[in-house]
User: Fold this.
Amino acid sequence: MAEARKQITVKGICKSFQNQEQSLQVLQDVTLDVNENEFLVILGPGQCGKTVLLNILAGLESADSGTVEFANGTPKYGEIGFVFQRYALFPWKTVLQNVEMHHKFQRVPKKERREQAMHFIRLVGLDGFENAYPAQLSGGMKQRVGIARAYATRSNIILMDEPFGALDAQTRYQMQDEILKIRSAEKTTVIFVTNNIEEAVTLGDRILLMSNKPSSIVREYVPELPRPRQNTDRAFMDLRNVIAQDMDLAL
Ligand SMILES: Nc1ncnc2c1ncn2[C@@H]1O[C@H](COP(=O)(O)OP(=O)(O)OP(=O)(O)O)[C@@H](O)[C@H]1O
Ligand SMILES: [Mg+2]
Assistant:
Protein backbone atom coordinates (compact mmCIF):
# COMPACT_ATOMS: atom_id res chain seq x y z
CA MET A 1 0.00 0.00 0.00
CA ALA A 2 1.20 3.51 -0.76
CA GLU A 3 2.58 5.45 2.20
CA ALA A 4 -0.17 7.70 3.61
CA ARG A 5 0.43 11.41 3.08
CA LYS A 6 0.64 13.41 6.29
CA GLN A 7 -1.76 16.32 6.43
CA ILE A 8 -1.24 17.59 9.98
CA THR A 9 1.81 17.17 12.20
CA VAL A 10 1.33 17.99 15.87
CA LYS A 11 4.44 18.09 18.04
CA GLY A 12 4.84 18.52 21.77
CA ILE A 13 1.69 20.51 22.50
CA CYS A 14 1.48 21.69 26.12
CA LYS A 15 -1.37 23.70 27.56
CA SER A 16 -2.23 24.76 31.07
CA PHE A 17 -4.82 27.11 32.51
CA GLN A 18 -4.46 29.50 35.39
CA ASN A 19 -7.46 29.28 37.73
CA GLN A 20 -7.22 31.76 40.59
CA GLU A 21 -4.02 30.75 42.39
CA GLN A 22 -3.69 27.35 40.75
CA SER A 23 -2.28 26.25 37.47
CA LEU A 24 -3.98 23.29 35.77
CA GLN A 25 -1.80 21.36 33.36
CA VAL A 26 -4.18 19.88 30.77
CA LEU A 27 -2.06 18.83 27.76
CA GLN A 28 1.47 17.61 28.22
CA ASP A 29 3.53 16.85 25.15
CA VAL A 30 0.71 15.84 22.80
CA THR A 31 2.29 14.54 19.62
CA LEU A 32 0.42 13.02 16.70
CA ASP A 33 0.14 12.89 12.91
CA VAL A 34 -3.00 13.03 10.85
CA ASN A 35 -3.00 11.40 7.41
CA GLU A 36 -4.84 12.72 4.42
CA ASN A 37 -8.38 11.36 4.10
CA GLU A 38 -8.25 9.22 7.21
CA PHE A 39 -10.95 8.95 9.83
CA LEU A 40 -8.88 9.49 12.97
CA VAL A 41 -10.54 8.93 16.32
CA ILE A 42 -9.14 10.54 19.47
CA LEU A 43 -10.46 8.58 22.43
CA GLY A 44 -10.08 9.92 25.94
CA PRO A 45 -11.76 10.09 29.33
CA GLY A 46 -13.96 13.01 30.42
CA GLN A 47 -12.18 16.30 31.07
CA CYS A 48 -8.83 15.09 29.73
CA GLY A 49 -8.51 17.98 27.31
CA LYS A 50 -10.07 16.68 24.09
CA THR A 51 -11.95 19.89 23.36
CA VAL A 52 -8.91 21.99 24.22
CA LEU A 53 -6.84 19.95 21.75
CA LEU A 54 -9.40 20.35 18.94
CA ASN A 55 -9.62 24.08 19.65
CA ILE A 56 -5.84 24.32 19.29
CA LEU A 57 -5.95 22.39 15.98
CA ALA A 58 -8.69 24.72 14.73
CA GLY A 59 -6.72 27.79 15.77
CA LEU A 60 -9.44 28.81 18.25
CA GLU A 61 -7.06 28.55 21.17
CA SER A 62 -3.27 28.83 21.39
CA ALA A 63 -0.88 26.28 22.89
CA ASP A 64 1.73 27.23 25.51
CA SER A 65 4.35 25.34 23.52
CA GLY A 66 4.56 22.88 20.65
CA THR A 67 3.67 23.16 16.99
CA VAL A 68 0.83 22.32 14.62
CA GLU A 69 1.86 22.11 10.97
CA PHE A 70 -0.45 21.71 8.01
CA ALA A 71 1.02 20.16 4.86
CA ASN A 72 -1.08 22.44 2.64
CA GLY A 73 -0.53 25.62 4.65
CA THR A 74 -2.25 26.78 7.84
CA PRO A 75 -5.98 27.18 7.22
CA LYS A 76 -7.40 30.63 7.85
CA TYR A 77 -9.93 31.26 10.58
CA GLY A 78 -13.14 29.35 9.84
CA GLU A 79 -11.55 27.23 7.14
CA ILE A 80 -11.65 24.06 9.21
CA GLY A 81 -15.07 22.44 9.59
CA PHE A 82 -15.99 22.03 13.26
CA VAL A 83 -18.91 20.05 14.66
CA PHE A 84 -19.25 21.29 18.22
CA GLN A 85 -19.90 19.21 21.30
CA ARG A 86 -23.09 21.15 21.93
CA TYR A 87 -24.98 21.97 18.83
CA ALA A 88 -24.00 25.63 18.68
CA LEU A 89 -26.63 26.49 16.09
CA PHE A 90 -28.02 30.00 15.78
CA PRO A 91 -31.55 29.57 17.19
CA TRP A 92 -32.98 32.53 15.28
CA LYS A 93 -31.79 31.19 11.94
CA THR A 94 -33.32 28.39 9.89
CA VAL A 95 -31.55 25.13 9.03
CA LEU A 96 -30.65 26.55 5.61
CA GLN A 97 -29.33 29.81 7.08
CA ASN A 98 -27.25 27.93 9.64
CA VAL A 99 -25.71 25.70 6.99
CA GLU A 100 -24.88 28.53 4.56
CA MET A 101 -23.42 30.75 7.30
CA HIS A 102 -19.79 30.27 6.39
CA HIS A 103 -20.35 31.12 2.74
CA LYS A 104 -22.39 34.14 3.66
CA PHE A 105 -19.41 35.44 5.63
CA GLN A 106 -17.26 34.64 2.60
CA ARG A 107 -19.66 36.66 0.44
CA VAL A 108 -20.40 33.75 -1.87
CA PRO A 109 -23.34 34.81 -4.11
CA LYS A 110 -26.71 33.81 -2.69
CA LYS A 111 -27.74 31.37 -5.42
CA GLU A 112 -24.47 29.49 -5.25
CA ARG A 113 -24.35 29.25 -1.46
CA ARG A 114 -28.00 28.13 -1.34
CA GLU A 115 -27.27 25.34 -3.81
CA GLN A 116 -24.24 24.24 -1.83
CA ALA A 117 -26.10 24.36 1.48
CA MET A 118 -28.99 22.31 0.01
CA HIS A 119 -26.52 19.71 -1.22
CA PHE A 120 -25.28 19.16 2.33
CA ILE A 121 -28.76 19.36 3.85
CA ARG A 122 -29.79 16.52 1.53
CA LEU A 123 -26.61 14.63 2.34
CA VAL A 124 -27.44 14.57 6.05
CA GLY A 125 -31.06 13.59 5.37
CA LEU A 126 -32.74 16.87 6.31
CA ASP A 127 -34.38 17.53 2.97
CA GLY A 128 -37.70 19.25 3.68
CA PHE A 129 -36.50 20.78 6.96
CA GLU A 130 -34.43 23.59 5.46
CA ASN A 131 -36.87 26.25 6.67
CA ALA A 132 -37.29 24.80 10.18
CA TYR A 133 -35.71 26.48 13.22
CA PRO A 134 -33.38 24.58 15.59
CA ALA A 135 -36.03 24.57 18.36
CA GLN A 136 -38.27 22.52 16.07
CA LEU A 137 -35.66 19.77 15.64
CA SER A 138 -34.72 16.74 17.74
CA GLY A 139 -31.18 16.39 19.13
CA GLY A 140 -30.17 14.05 16.30
CA MET A 141 -31.51 16.46 13.68
CA LYS A 142 -29.70 19.40 15.26
CA GLN A 143 -26.45 17.51 15.10
CA ARG A 144 -27.15 16.70 11.43
CA VAL A 145 -27.36 20.47 10.86
CA GLY A 146 -24.03 20.83 12.67
CA ILE A 147 -22.50 18.21 10.39
CA ALA A 148 -23.96 19.79 7.24
CA ARG A 149 -22.62 23.16 8.34
CA ALA A 150 -19.13 21.76 8.92
CA TYR A 151 -19.08 20.06 5.50
CA ALA A 152 -20.48 23.16 3.82
CA THR A 153 -17.26 25.00 4.66
CA ARG A 154 -15.78 22.80 1.90
CA SER A 155 -12.82 22.25 4.18
CA ASN A 156 -10.68 19.20 3.65
CA ILE A 157 -10.40 18.82 7.43
CA ILE A 158 -13.45 18.32 9.65
CA LEU A 159 -13.14 18.23 13.43
CA MET A 160 -15.94 16.54 15.34
CA ASP A 161 -16.11 17.02 19.10
CA GLU A 162 -18.18 14.20 20.64
CA PRO A 163 -20.92 14.99 18.14
CA PHE A 164 -23.19 12.16 19.31
CA GLY A 165 -22.51 12.45 23.04
CA ALA A 166 -25.89 13.97 23.85
CA LEU A 167 -27.94 11.48 21.79
CA ASP A 168 -29.83 8.42 22.98
CA ALA A 169 -28.21 5.05 22.18
CA GLN A 170 -30.47 4.23 19.21
CA THR A 171 -29.97 7.59 17.51
CA ARG A 172 -26.27 7.39 18.24
CA TYR A 173 -25.89 4.08 16.36
CA GLN A 174 -27.89 5.49 13.48
CA MET A 175 -25.72 8.62 13.33
CA GLN A 176 -22.54 6.52 13.36
CA ASP A 177 -23.77 4.71 10.22
CA GLU A 178 -24.72 8.01 8.64
CA ILE A 179 -21.40 9.69 9.31
CA LEU A 180 -19.58 6.85 7.56
CA LYS A 181 -21.88 7.18 4.54
CA ILE A 182 -21.39 10.94 4.42
CA ARG A 183 -17.70 10.45 4.70
CA SER A 184 -17.51 8.08 1.75
CA ALA A 185 -19.55 10.55 -0.34
CA GLU A 186 -17.37 13.56 0.61
CA LYS A 187 -13.67 12.81 0.75
CA THR A 188 -12.25 14.64 3.74
CA THR A 189 -9.99 14.06 6.69
CA VAL A 190 -12.05 13.63 9.84
CA ILE A 191 -10.73 13.98 13.39
CA PHE A 192 -13.44 12.60 15.62
CA VAL A 193 -13.28 12.94 19.40
CA THR A 194 -15.15 10.58 21.71
CA ASN A 195 -15.03 9.09 25.20
CA ASN A 196 -16.86 5.97 23.98
CA ILE A 197 -14.70 2.94 23.16
CA GLU A 198 -17.34 1.20 21.04
CA GLU A 199 -17.89 4.33 18.98
CA ALA A 200 -14.12 4.61 18.44
CA VAL A 201 -13.87 1.00 17.22
CA THR A 202 -16.94 1.38 14.99
CA LEU A 203 -15.62 4.48 13.23
CA GLY A 204 -11.85 4.78 13.32
CA ASP A 205 -9.35 3.99 10.57
CA ARG A 206 -7.00 4.69 13.44
CA ILE A 207 -7.61 5.35 17.12
CA LEU A 208 -5.37 7.38 19.44
CA LEU A 209 -5.87 6.95 23.17
CA MET A 210 -5.40 9.98 25.43
CA SER A 211 -4.51 9.58 29.09
CA ASN A 212 -6.01 11.49 31.97
CA LYS A 213 -4.67 14.99 32.80
CA PRO A 214 -1.96 16.01 32.27
CA SER A 215 -2.80 14.28 29.01
CA SER A 216 -0.76 12.90 26.21
CA ILE A 217 -1.31 10.26 23.52
CA VAL A 218 -0.50 6.91 25.11
CA ARG A 219 -1.57 4.29 22.54
CA GLU A 220 -2.41 3.85 18.89
CA TYR A 221 -4.69 1.18 17.38
CA VAL A 222 -5.35 0.38 13.74
CA PRO A 223 -8.48 -1.79 13.70
CA GLU A 224 -8.14 -4.55 11.10
CA LEU A 225 -11.89 -4.95 10.89
CA PRO A 226 -13.91 -5.02 7.68
CA ARG A 227 -16.60 -2.37 7.28
CA PRO A 228 -19.41 -2.10 8.13
CA ARG A 229 -18.21 -3.15 11.56
CA GLN A 230 -20.43 -5.17 13.86
CA ASN A 231 -20.07 -4.74 17.61
CA THR A 232 -21.03 -8.41 18.02
CA ASP A 233 -18.04 -9.70 15.99
CA ARG A 234 -15.34 -11.50 17.94
CA ALA A 235 -12.51 -9.31 16.63
CA PHE A 236 -14.51 -6.15 17.44
CA MET A 237 -15.08 -7.29 21.02
CA ASP A 238 -11.44 -8.32 21.43
CA LEU A 239 -10.21 -4.87 20.38
CA ARG A 240 -12.80 -3.18 22.58
CA ASN A 241 -11.54 -5.22 25.55
CA VAL A 242 -7.90 -4.43 24.85
CA ILE A 243 -8.67 -0.70 24.70
CA ALA A 244 -10.78 -0.89 27.86
CA GLN A 245 -7.87 -2.47 29.71
CA ASP A 246 -5.40 0.07 28.35
CA MET A 247 -7.75 2.88 29.37
CA ASP A 248 -7.91 1.53 32.93
CA LEU A 249 -4.12 1.46 33.06
CA ALA A 250 -3.79 4.92 31.56
CA LEU A 251 -6.10 6.57 34.11
N1 LIG B 1 -10.66 28.32 29.32
C1 LIG B 1 -10.41 27.50 30.34
N2 LIG B 1 -10.02 27.99 31.55
C2 LIG B 1 -9.73 27.16 32.56
N3 LIG B 1 -9.79 25.82 32.50
C3 LIG B 1 -10.18 25.28 31.33
C4 LIG B 1 -10.51 26.08 30.19
N4 LIG B 1 -10.83 25.26 29.16
C5 LIG B 1 -10.74 24.01 29.64
N5 LIG B 1 -10.34 24.01 30.92
C6 LIG B 1 -10.09 22.83 31.76
O1 LIG B 1 -9.30 21.93 30.99
C7 LIG B 1 -9.70 20.60 31.23
C8 LIG B 1 -10.01 19.92 29.93
O2 LIG B 1 -11.16 20.50 29.35
P1 LIG B 1 -11.81 19.94 28.01
O3 LIG B 1 -13.10 20.66 27.84
O4 LIG B 1 -10.83 20.00 26.90
O5 LIG B 1 -12.07 18.41 28.40
P2 LIG B 1 -12.75 17.29 27.50
O6 LIG B 1 -11.81 16.15 27.41
O7 LIG B 1 -13.23 17.89 26.23
O8 LIG B 1 -13.97 16.88 28.44
P3 LIG B 1 -15.44 16.33 28.04
O9 LIG B 1 -15.26 14.88 27.72
O10 LIG B 1 -16.23 16.54 29.28
O11 LIG B 1 -15.92 17.13 26.89
C9 LIG B 1 -10.87 20.65 32.18
O12 LIG B 1 -10.43 20.35 33.47
C10 LIG B 1 -11.36 22.07 32.07
O13 LIG B 1 -11.89 22.49 33.29
MG1 LIG C 1 -15.06 18.20 25.40
User: Anything to note?
Assistant: The pocket of magnesium ion (ligand 2) is lined by residues 50-51, 85, 161-162 (CB under 6 Å).
